[in-house]
Design goal:
With about 170 residues, the chain is an alpha/beta fold. About 35% of the residues lie in helices and about 15% in strands. The protein has seven helices and five strands. β1 (about 5-10), α1 (about 15-25) and β2 (about 30-35) form a beta-alpha-beta unit.
Amino acid sequence: MKNEWVYVGGTFDLFHYGHMKFLQQCREYGPVIVSLNTDDFAARYKREPILSLGERMEALSGCKYVDDVCVNIGDENSGITIDRITDREIAYIAHGDDWAGDALLSQLGITDQWLQDRAIQMLYVPYTGGISTSEIIGRVIGNVHSDCDCSCGCSGDGTHAKRSTRSE
């Protein structure tokens, strides 16, 4: 395995197979360090996490595609966290390919020049469709068509057949 590390920032609430597949693909480029967003930052950014920072750290630490876990101390400026990781050579910042370019860099608090100065490349990994933390929450609270026969929660034609395996 290379000594060039892959930095992955995120909240990783309700760790699921989409997260796992993303991290598996990242690992193909080198060891993976996951920088977890704090509960306060996650709440400002999207919503308050269901799992605490400590619980999310334990979940990610147990993933075989993750080599280290740290806390995103920079919140909106991931560059602060990356610059504090001095014992590893960060070669890539990975993100799902559902969001890229200047808008993503701005959200991370970094610029193209910042990346060039540190010889870090952006790595866009294919997004795993059909699963997300928001979708799981929707299933639990009943806002998604969780009784539909299709895996995405919507049959696409406006009808939603009941699963025959469910007891009413």
